[in-house]
Amino acid sequence: MNAVATRFGLNRDGNRRLRQLVTPEGLALPLTIASRSARAGALLIDLGIIFLSLIAFIVVLGAVGIELAGIDANASAGGAMEFVGVLLILLLFLARYGYFLWFELGPRGATPGKRMLGIRVAARDGGRLSAEAVIARNLIRDVEVFLPTFLLLGGASSMGVAGGAAALWLAIFVLFPFFNKDALRAGDLVAGTWVVEAQTARLPEAMSVSPDRSRDYRFGEAELAIYGERELQVLEGVLRQDNAETMREVMDTICGKIGWTPGQGDEREFLEAFYAALRAHLERGMRLGRRKADKHTGA
Amino acid sequence: MALALFKTPEITPPADIEAASLRSDRFRLEREVDWQRLERIVSLLEKNRPRRINDEDLLELPVLYRKAASSLAVARETSLDAATLAYLESLVRRAWFQVYGPRMGMLGWLRRFLGGSWSASVRDIWLDICIALAVMVAGTLVGWLLVARDSEWYYALVPGEMGGGRQPGADRAALMETLEPTQSAEGLTVFATYLFSNNTGVCIMAFALGFCFGIPTLLLLVHNMAVLGAMMWLFAGAGLEWEFAAWLSVHGTTELFAILLSGAAGLHVGRSMAFPGDASILAAASASGKRAAQVMAGCTIMLVIAGLLEGYARQLVPTATGRASIGAVMLAFWIAYFCLMPRPRDHAQDRGDSDEAQP
């Protein structure tokens, strides 16, 4: 069991996407591989953005073109039309190759779609994400995203055997992320990158700054020995949510466990006091090298 | 003081550190000013507005980063405050991405790239360039020989729209006609842009297909060059080989060179995956992928130039000698640039560690 857990990178919570990254300071930073669905979603958002802005641009260009044709039909308009044509071709080119490149080279390492879903590109070896890596992963994207799209739009069936072979060949690229545990696509493999979650967390209030109630509620060693770290975290979540009904329920459960009779109207005070006492107890154990993961592990 | 309006609000230290009853919370309250300061710097860096960070903060960024990192290490061992741990992990990760993020902007990268990094990468894949060149020559020969044996092959190789009057049996005058320049420069810009966009697509495909051990890249090269071979046979049959070669060389020396490089780049990735040597397949693939990406970025530049030459120079210069000399000069320029440009000091020498630039 243990071997299997290591092989799939399972952590305590059974999260298969958790990885450790060791920084040059020797600190192990947990990273979560972005889920395949998040990446597909980000890609769809990006393609949507590209598509919509292209349409908007073409509408504007078309309006300009009609305007030009209306003003006069002589030589000067010809030059302008040529310019519009060049602009259009360059724009299509940039939309296909430049969009992803530009955004992923930025300090966030993410396209707008990726940013919306809280994921970013990172170097797999823990080093710096170099410009070459971003270029490489986005050149391969051509075969993974754009060619299959064109093939689908163009109708592979009309090409017969060659179309089928091409579809099969491209399917290898498209399905590549489903056949490795890091959800790498072919471009990631070649560039030495991966896509990880990059949510920003806010610093919440400290828990124990509310008035000290250790005199009103006294918990004994035996009462505190029941629960472990996981229960403490659940209690922390309950207190931060500050929902009266949940707190009542949790208080009843705790009182039932430790053999107290729950009072009325002092749920928050009781839970805060219990949280502080339990955390102090568990942290004292931690400093002495004793950890208690949850209520099922022995002290 | 006039700028006070744009200043971000000051970070206020927590009111009463001693009020916290837990030791781990006191630890946190004592340090959270530094964390928030780091967070503010990191947020500005993420928004790409480094100018708004004052010098004091910028100088202290590495210190603040190390402080936060060590706080995280201590907190992991002493604190059970899950929310604070999550915050610290996210903060250190964000700061790590910025501290070890790309140091160069687009412009700095471009300067280094043109100033030798590109040439060095091209020289690094010399073996693949030789292979790709051999394959391209072989492809041309195959095209020539196939068509010489049976001219029906010509129709199989050259797509209809590309023929445009160039077909077996056409007389010398008709063939000469296709090599004539156009009369005016009108429409050439669009043509040049179109050529660039189209050719770059082909090159990127040649590179991207190299992923599967390079075989599709080779096929693509052979096929494209067979078309060329077939056309050469056609024009040589009419005694126009010099004119055709000159017509082709204006942009062809640059364009075929770019196709050669992109094919070689694809091959390089494919070859290093098939024969990774001492490194793991993943490490070998990413090292060669980055090197090949440099070559590919350069190919785009070459194709812009090729598109301009094809769109303008070829259509405007009528004589075969003039065309051939433009082509020869371009070829000489590229070869000299790739061979003579010195390697930038921080460009990685060996295969396998191209990602370790100077800190």
Strand and helix order of chain B: HHHHHHHHHHHHH
The helical percent of chain A reads 55-70%
Which pair of chains has the greatest number of interface residues, and how are they split between the two chains?
A-B, 77 and 86 residues
Q: Using the alpha-carbon principal axes, give the shape of chain B.
A: elongated
Q: Mind summarizing the main beta sheet of chain B?
A: none
Cross-sheet strand order for the largest sheet of chain A: 1-2
Number of domains of chain B: 2
Could you characterize the architecture of this molecule?
The complex is a heterodimer of chains A (299) and B (359). Chain A is mainly α. Helices cover 59% and strands 7% of the residues of chain A. In chain A, helix 3 packs across helix 5, helix 5 (131-154) runs antiparallel to helix 6 and helix 9 (229-241) runs antiparallel to helix 11. Chain A starts with a helix and ends in a 12-residue tail after the last helix. Chain B is an all-alpha fold and 359 residues long. Chain B has two domains: 14-99, no CATH class; 106-340, no CATH class. Chain B is 73% helix and 0% strand. Chain B has 13 helices and no strands. Chain B has helices at residues 23-46, 55-78, 82-99, 106-124, 126-149, 152-157, 160-163, 172-179, 188-208, 215-237, 241-274, 281-316, 320-340. In chain B, helix 10 (215-237) runs antiparallel to helix 11. Chain B is elongated. At the A-B interface, strand 2, helix 3, strand 3, helix 5 and helix 6 of A face helix 1, helix 2, helix 3, helix 9 and helix 12 of B.
Keywords:
heterodimer, A: 299 residues, mainly alpha, two-stranded antiparallel sheet, 11 helices, 4 strands, disordered N terminus, B: 359 residues, 2 domains, 13 helices, SpoIIM-like (chain B)
Gist of the model:
Chain B: It comes from Alteraurantiacibacter aestuarii. Chain A has eleven helices and four strands; from the N terminus they run αββαααβαααβαααα. With 299 residues, chain A is mainly alpha-helical.
